[in-house]
Write a structure and sequence with these properties.
The structure is a single chain. By secondary structure, the protein is of the alpha+beta class. The chain is built from three helices and twelve strands; from the N terminus they run βββββαββαβαββββ. The strands form four sheets. It has a six-stranded mixed β-sheet with strand order 3-4-5-6-10-8. A two-stranded antiparallel ribbon has the order 1-2. Strands 7-9 form a two-stranded antiparallel sheet. The longest helix is centred in the middle third of the chain and has 14 residues, at about 125-140. The protein is globular and about 50 Å long. The chain starts with 13 loop residues before the first strand and ends in a 9-residue tail after the last strand.
């Protein structure tokens, strides 16, 4: 189902594909109507943590998977089992998946982990390990960390100003062989509004046109 409130989208410029039935959870993807993308198929998990779309853009025969996720705060291994299954359900196409993972991409010890600072332990070490396994099996990676291996930037800052811990919990994972096509991968300087406690993340890339073979 595609719908979006007029107060947010007064000119009807976007289609909103969502997976949410309650206020506390859910994910969604906005697609600009004049972007010439067509949704070929969709896949959703049972806990409203994952939404994957198989897309195609007019003029480019290459299809790809775009995913929005909201990682559980607790240790829930089935989240990664379902995510893997959803990607495979949508077929053989490059997958670009982003959102709030509620874990770090790096599995290094907290003392050396570039994705956290001023923390005694990783936010959800088990999930970082499961994510690492998923990326290895599906040949995915975090383009931010590939392009900027030593930069320390964070997406989550506690609302309590006395707390000094920071972490990078929001990021994309994309096919390793697509990193060369990334033109921008960055984190917003500040929060978009007072309702959020996570910074926005940005990913731009040029999808190569699939060449026809004879």
């Amino acid at each position: 189902q595609m719908c979006i409130r007029d107060s947010i989208n007064p000119y009807g410029s976007y289609d909103f594909i969502h997976h949410s039935t309650q206020n506390k959870r859910g994910v969604g993807i906005l697609i600009k109507k004049n972007s010439l993308f067509t949704v070929l198929a969709s896949a959703r998990d049972r806990d409203e943590n994952c939404l994957l779309l198989r897309l195609k853009k007019e003029g480019n025969p290459r299809e790809f998977i775009l995913g929005s996720i909201y990682g559980p705060n607790r240790v829930e291994p089935h989240f990664f089992v379902e995510l893997r299954t959803l990607v495979q359900t949508l077929g053989n196409a490059p997958a670009f998946i982003g959102g709030d993972w509620n874990c770090t991409y790096s599995t290094q010890h907290v003392r050396n982990n570039p994705d956290v600072i001023n923390m005694q332990s990783l936010p959800n070490k088990r999930h970082s390990e499961l994510l690492d396994s998923l990326c290895n099996d599906l040949s995915l990676c975090d383009p931010f960390r590939v392009k900027f291996p030593n930069i320390k930037e964070y997406t989550f800052t506690p609302s309590d100003i006395t707390k000094k811990n920071r972490s990078r919990l929001d990021f994309f994972i994309i096919p390793k062989d697509m990193v060369q096509n990334v033109t921008d991968c960055s984190i917003s300087v500040g929060l978009q509004n007072k309702l959020f406690d996570h910074k926005a993340i940005h990913l731009s890339l040029r999808l190569p046109v699939k060449k026809n073979t004879i």
